[in-house]
Amino acid sequence: MSRPYEEILNGASLPRSAPSDRHEQICARLHREMALSIAGLASTQLLPQRTRVQFSRTTALCPDLALVTTASGKPFLAVEVISRDDHHADTVVKKEIYEQLRVPRLWMVDPRYDNVEIYHSFEFGLKLSAILAGSEVLSEKLVPQFRLTVGELFAA
Question: Does the model's pTM come out above 0.90?
Answer without folding.
Answer: yes
